[in-house]
Amino acid sequence: RKLPRSLSLMVARFLACLTALIAPALALHPARLAPRPLPCLMCVPAGFEEAWPQLLEIVDEEAADLALAVDDVAFARGKLSVLASGGVDDLVALNRRLSERLDDWEANAAVELPPYMLEVASPGVSDVLRSDADYAAFKGFGVQATLTEEYKKRTVHEGTLLGRDGEHVLLNLKGRVLKLPRELVAEVRLPSAKREKGDPY
Asked: Average pLDDT, stretch 41-57?
């Protein structure tokens, strides 16, 4: 059954007004349209077991308020690293807001976090693999994986990158597959370029 013409016009005008109200808000916060993928729950850093999901929410909220997109959040060797796409002024503002927000959160929510140093930076060009896209792009390349504690009697493993899944970083060690638990992996990086003898650069 069709709606009366007058009612149809009212509905159309209401939807037009609603769109006009929502569109500017979405334009101001493009980061909300493409949220960062949910983190691997098996890869929560030691000491952050209970606080990590809420910490990620805080980072995303503060970044979205500045119209920034968060590329990665990681904790290794006492450093809480937040990688976000934006200019220098934007990153400085995000660093300041996160410092204040996290201090208030710890003080008022009875949350105990391990000692950390906050670092907000742009992804840029780095030897460290962070995103799933990095792992896909450098599959088959030689890498060095540094762990937070010994695994297979070593804290550093070198091999050919096979990829990573929800639980492991996979390396090929001379034909043998090594599965490194992601919760132990501090970083995976490409080896630094070696300078040949006589190379002036």
From this structure: 72
